[in-house]
Design goal:
single chain; alpha+beta; MutS, DNA mismatch repair protein, domain I; Alpha-Beta Plaits; Dna Ligase, domain 1; 5 domains; 7-stranded mixed beta sheet; 30 helices; 20 strands; DNA-binding; DNA_pol_Y-fam_lit_finger_sf; transferase; DNA polymerase kappa
Length: 821
DNA sequence: GCGGATCAC
DNA sequence: TATGGTGATCCGC
């Protein structure tokens, strides 16, 4: 717990401790600051103000640092300075930061903290001038560098590294670059971070601020070590070590609070450990679990982003709060005029107008209208803005803002500013291909200087393991697979056996085997080609396998290949009973057999083994009569793909095949993968290939109840929700495959925990699961010993919900059986 | 499409 | 005395 931020540890006599302000947050140059004193002063100054009251209610105040400062008068060197005025300062130099002064702090508070603080007015032309100077330097290293803002940039130094040939050249390149910035700008210092991607590079650039640099080696273990202990947002205690503030882009005050206090995720390593929890609670998005897991793995962007055109344009002003309507209307007219002016300058017309208000008590409100036609005229804007404002009166307002969005794309570039179009062309022409990797620098200035935050990226793929990991994540982002599982997969890769490698080699020439329906594929040149009759039935052995079981189909053709190889090797008399594909290959040496079997198990567990498709019905029922045995072994699932089940179950239960066939009619591509007892069901849009939902979990014994199907996740993407209004659509199908899988594994019960995070998420989860057919069993609150088992297994508190698998299948049978016929 | 929130800079 | 402005995105409804 950093800096007494937890309200639970606050002493009643020290109320400022609970006043969480941005001013004691991570900030370079704040090491050794008496944070309590800062907090107390800020508290005393703020106490009772409307603003403070608002903050108390929101329990938040967040701003980001902008290191941008310059004073040309040498006599000011070493003196505490801040850019801005008494009401607000933009940034402060390191001298001032020693007093606790920082960006986004009101000047009057800053002056209280540091009575000698020198206020310097903002001077944008000056910043732009120096920014341009630094950019000239960056161009020498990477003509396509990404200018993050005036004071930061990302450079790809791959080529420079390569030219200089030496490994470890990043250090000297960074030094040279910073030195170059220093001389070209006449004295500006900056900091740099070098790493494999931009996210890491930014963090690295913070480490040795000011006027320093840090190079993170581009190998997986270095990255993992570095990132795993990295706090999600706050800096480390200055006494702990010399490492300065670090921050992950995209995680602000609010997100930090959720991760830290609700989910007990404090470091990036925790993010990976609690990946399934994140997956359950956040939908997939840049702010969602994929993002968190990527961060946890130290992954970030390395490409040059597309030039994004603006989506809105706005103008807003703060003034002394007033309820005077005439005054407000006149402010509104001014802002409408400003906005109209900006739109004309940019050659934009738009049809959605949004009015933003900040009340005297600092609440933010917005009201929007979409107009019939595109406009940029101040009269139109004012007319509609007035209506919107009128509806809010009477109210005391301290800020009015107007924003226009939904541009008319057709005329967007009819009259663009020269600068804009030039930038556009330059960026477009210079966009590079195949940027696999970056090293990056972050530069920052120190005292008495325009502080810089410039970054540089490079490509130097010395270590393939991390690159491989990164590739995987790109795949994840495309396929929505959880990174941590893919990681496991990656770690297992070296253990792949020779026999498997052999199969894979053969596979390469026939990678389309599993791709499409009745397409004939030659598994082996001189052998009858494998054909999926009617799209699902193997012409060689008659097994039915839905097209969506892509990997299983591959395995299946591997089987036929292996069988063929074996036949060739040992003659026509050899067994045709496929017990294990590796036994068929028969390449293991006797003395390593045991070891290899273990490995086989692990390796096989990624997919459903071929032999399970051939499991005889009596074997199946034998197993199901002996659940105790399964408990120990946690065997792979028995897939029952045939509509006419051999298990002797009632005809009314939908088989896996029923579910899959039915889903096909809904353009849904379902797939199940297993990893030991773990399983994952993914549903993809058959047309676009994008994932629309998934379920994950494990088949495990549960305290005297035999095997249960433990569901970690049922998740639908946002896209799904738009596409399919009914949760019972995709969600039901994904859930059904999981449930049927559980049934086939011998589970009687399915269970899950609707994690309690916030009221909002929790009630949503419970509602969703109830609609699917689960019932609330108990609240796991951690208050009783009996909760311990649940808490250990689920890793949290919430509502335990169970469902009888048989009942679920019965309940759902109509849906699936109906659509079959 | 609207309104609230969060985030970066 | 006094706590910014611009733009983006996401989520729920």
């Amino acid at each position: 717990m950093d800096e007494g931020e937890s309200s639970s540890t606050n002493s009643p006599s020290r109320p400022w401790e609970s006043y969480n302000t941005v001013f004691t947050n991570a900030k370079a140059g704040m090491e050794g600051v008496d944070k309590e004193k800062v907090q107390r002063i800020v508290y005393e100054m703020s106490k009772g103000s409307k603003y403070f009251q608002n903050e108390e209610r929101k329990e938040a105040l967040m701003k980001q640092e902008i290191e941008l400062m310059r004073d040309s008068n040498p006599s000011l060197k070493g003196k505490p300075m801040a850019v801005g005025g008494l009401s607000m300062i933009s940034t402060a130099n390191y001298e001032a930061r020693k007093f606790g002064v920082r960006a986004a702090m009101p000047g009057f508070i800053a002056r209280k903290l540091c009575p000698d603080l020198i206020f310097v007015p903002v001077d944008f032309p000056k910043y732009t001038h120096y920014s341009d100077l630094t950019r000239k330097v960056f161009k020498n290293y990477d003509p396509n560098f990404i200018a993050g803002s005036l004071d930061e940039a990302y450079l790809d130094i791959t080529e420079v590294c390569r030219e200089r040939g030496l490994s470890g050249g990043e250090v000297s390149i960074a030094e040279e670059l910073r030195s170059s910035v220093h001389s070209e700008t006449g004295g500006l210092t900056c900091s740099a971070g070098v790493a494999a991607n931009r996210l890491l590079a930014k963090v690295c650039s913070d480490i040795n601020k000011p006027n320093g640099q840090f190079v993170l080696q581009n190998d997986r273990s270095s990255v993992m070590t570095f990132i795993s202990s990295l706090p999600i947002r706050k800096h480390r205690d200055a006494t702990e070590n010399s490492i300065g503030p670090r921050r992950i882009g995209g995680i602000g005050k609010v997100t930090e609070h959720i991760l830290k206090d609700a989910l007990e995720i404090k470091t990036c390593g925790d993010m990976v450990l609690k990946g399934s929890l994140l997956y359950a609670l956040f939908t997939q998005s840049s702010a969602g679990s994929n993002f968190f897991l990527s961060v946890g793995l130290g992954l970030g962007k390395t490409d040059t982003p597309e030039v994004r055109s603006r989506k809105s344009i706005s103008s807003e002003r703060t003034f002394a709060a007033t309820g005077d309507e005439r005054l407000l209307y006149s402010k509104l007219a001014e802002i409408a005029e400003m906005l109209s002016h900006d739109m004309k300058k940019e050659g934009l017309t738009a049809r959605t107008l949004t009015l933003k208000l900040k009340t005297a008590s600092f609440e933010i409100r917005s009201r929007a209208v979409s107009l019939q036609r595109y406009t940029c005229s101040s009269e139109d804007i004012l007319k509609h803005a007035t209506k919107l404002l009128k509806a809010e009166l009477p109210v005391s307002i301290r800020l009015i803002g107007l924003r226009m969005s939904q541009f008319n794309e057709e005329i967007r570039h009819s009259d663009p500013s020269q600068g804009t179009i030039t930038k556009f062309i330059v960026q477009k022409d210079s966009s590079r291909q195949n940027l696999d990797d970056n090293d990056s620098f972050d530069l920052e200035a120190s005292t008495n200087c325009l502080s810089n935050d410039e970054r540089l990226s490079s490509y130097a793929s010395h270590d393939t393991s991390y690159d491989q990991l990164k590739e995987d994540v790109v795949k994840y982002e495309e396929q929505s697979v959880t990174p941590e599982q893919e990681c496991k997969k990656e770690e297992e890769r070296p253990q792949v056996l020779e026999g498997d490698a052999l199969l894979r080699k053969h596979k390469e020439s026939k990678s389309e085997t599993s791709a499409q329906n009745t397409e004939a594929v030659s598994v082996f040149p001189q052998m009858e080609p494998l054909l999926w009759v009617n799209g699902y039935k193997c012409n060689l052995c008659g097994i039915e396998l839905p097209p969506s079981f892509v990997e299983e189909r591959q395995e299946h053709s591997d089987f036929h290949l292996a069988q063929r190889l074996q036949n060739e090797e040992s003659g026509p008399s050899s067994s045709t009973t496929p017990t294990s594909k590796r036994r068929i290959l028969g390449k293991e040496k006797a003395n390593s057999k045991q070891k290899k079997q273990k490995l086989n198990q692990k390796d096989d567990s990624k997919h459903i083994p071929i032999h399970t498709f051939f499991t005889k019905s009596n074997q199946n029922s034998d197993e199901r009569r002996n659940p105790e045995e399964m408990k120990m072994a946690l065997p792979p699932p028995r897939l029952n793909l045939s509509p006419s089940s051999s298990l002797g179950e009632p005809r009314s239960l939908p088989s896996m095949s029923d579910i899959l066939t039915s889903s096909k009619a809904r353009n849904l591509d379902l797939k199940i993968q297993t990893l030991g007892p773990f399983f994952r069901v993914t549903g993809k849009n058959a047309d676009t290939g994008s994932e629309v939902g998934r379920a994950e979990g494990v088949v495990r014994p549960w305290f005297g109840r035999g095997l249960v199907l433990h569901l970690d996740t049922i998740k639908l993407t946002k896209e799904t929700m738009v596409m399919d209004k009914s949760l019972l659509g995709v969600g039901l199908y994904v859930g059904a495959v999981a449930i049927r899988h559980g049934y086939d594994c011998g589970c009687r019960t399915a269970q899950l925990l609707a994690i309690y995070d916030s009221d909002l998420y929790h009630s949503k989860l419970v509602r969703f699961y109830r609609r699917i057919g689960f019932e609330e069993v108990k609240e796991v609150s951690g208050s009783s010993i009996g909760d311990m088992a649940d808490m250990l297994v689920w890793g949290g508190v919430g509502t335990r919900m169970d469902a009888n698998i048989h009942h679920l299948l019965v309940k759902w049978s109509k849906v699936f059986l109906k659509s079959v016929s």
